[in-house]
Amino acid sequence: MPKYNFPKIVITGMGAVTPIGNNVNDFWEGLISGKNGCDYFTGFDYSNFATKFGFEVKDYDPLIHLTRKEVQRMDRFTQFAMSAAIMCVEDSGLDLAKIEKNRCGVIVGSGIGGMDTYEKQHKILIDRAGDPSRISPFFIPMLILDIVSGYIAIQFGFKGVNYATVSACSTSTHALANALIHLQRGDADVILAGGTEAVLTPMGVGGFNALKALSTRNDDPKTASRPFDKDRDGFVMGEGAGVLMLETEEHALNRGAKIYAEIAGCGLTDDAFHITQPAEGGEGAVRSMKLAIEDAGLTINDIQYINSHGTSTYYNDKNETAAIRTLFGDLADGLNINSTKSMTGHLLGATGAIEAIATCKTIETGIIPPTINYQNPDPECDLNYTPNVKVEREVTGAISNSFGFGGHNATLCFKAYK
Predict the structure, then answer these.
(1) Is 309 a catalytic residue?
(2) Which of 4, 7, 16 lies closest to 360, judged by CA?
(3) Does the annotation mark 274 as catalytic?
């Protein structure tokens, strides 16, 4: 039984802009076919960078969903989110003329925000001998990460709960968790939630290189994102956005909405250990997964699939594996686990949202996407990571993990809707 007598909250719409597809259908087809979205950077001169590749969004045209004036006044991370949100609402079939917009909210976060805008405006300041009058009046609105939720609200007239989350790589998982909690409390009927990121810029890549966090497999970038593989040497940055519509079951049924899955629980913890490394043995991850499953009214016996954080870094992959073994015990070997980051890269603040979409699609279709580039098993990572080829399996209970710098752990639990 659920821990509390809350109403069911369901997923009724999804939108995505990713390195392997600029809508949910293309994204999903890319995942189940093992599509690899990695390549050398095209957006800036990478010749002096230790890492020369990443997962860029390709063939994206913001003018499909936005006016030219809007595009000129939005950073790329905002454009991605707007496209994802518009596609999400279209997918949901929500009739904007028939809803109470005071009870519709938006919670969309970003780990970093408008870094590209900051870099370009700072260059203008320096090139103009420090003259601040040359800074764009749109600099601050283009930079701040909460502007996304504001723009989405304006687009649809949603006047309810509205803010942004920021917790590094857990950002959009926290956004979804908070949306779940608001809906359970009765604060809203509908909330658009997710995350967006676009920091494949000189400072973005250079900063993560300075941390020694990124893969430097420049001779073979297609195989650089290799979660749980013994030869992994760091994560690979990506960009994009994911937005999901969360809705109370009653509201969804009353309007005849299509339901992908139930978002049934969340678990939120912190390691209180280190600014970048996870706690030994994944102690905080154990607690976040346990809390999410309990919050959903399930037990570990009810979970068949885990969309892992799976970053392709030594410490994360080892400790997430240890956390799963600790929590699931003898049941761990029967789980299907994957890391979709092997195909999309690490979208930082957007990663939890696109992985939630992948989890919902897995529940809907009974197809578990693979972890590609899994070639050399690591004795410290000894679970079933669904290597290289998709698997068909009925999934009625699943969790999706996100773990961020600062020790932020967030887990969502999804159920097949009944």
Answers:
(1) yes
(2) 16
(3) no
